[in-house]
Amino acid sequence: MGKNNNSTFVIQLSIVVILGVLLLYNLSIPKVAAPQAQTSASSGQGSSAIMQAIIPTGVPAVYGAELGISFDDVSVNSPSKADATIRKLGGFDDGIQLSAADKTRYINILYNMENGISCEYCCGARAVIFETGEAACGCAHSYAMRGLTKYLLTKHGAEYSDAQILEEVGKWKVLFFPGILASKAQVLQNQGIELNYINLASNKFRGIEQGQSTGGSMVGGC
User: How far is 64 from 85, CA to CA, in rounded Å?
Assistant: First the structure.
């Protein structure tokens, strides 16, 4: 009789141990999953904060009101208004002839300073112009960047330095490529590089974002 009781006790104890192990295993599952969910949420919040930090808004000072344009006009949510604004800026590329002095500044801004500025997500040109000042890329974004530069040089050249014009052009480039430049901004920030429109949009750190996942599509056609 004693042997049977001992056997029963051993069996019951084994069952309790097995149930305890299963319970502990089940309890451990949410503890593993929770940090992943927090990381995902944190990553999403970080991307949103970066996007808000780099997207220019409102009417540009000096030239915005006189041209009837706003940074808010170029958005993936309003493609027709975005295209119209890009065309308006692009029209100045063919419509404005530069003096010799202005052309020197033009080449410095778009080709020399910080290695120039390009439309690298549309075409592979070294910059939106050649070293002679001639157009190097035929996409709508490049027309807009060249057009704005010509407009500011001829209408407000005394009010803007070359660096300030490059910065202004960079703001519009961010609007043209918000997703990939948000990824680039994150890389710059992670590497301790100052986050400004020249560092972000010029060729100074071109390609630094390669290999990063990007969100959002370009605004306006190539």
Answer: 11
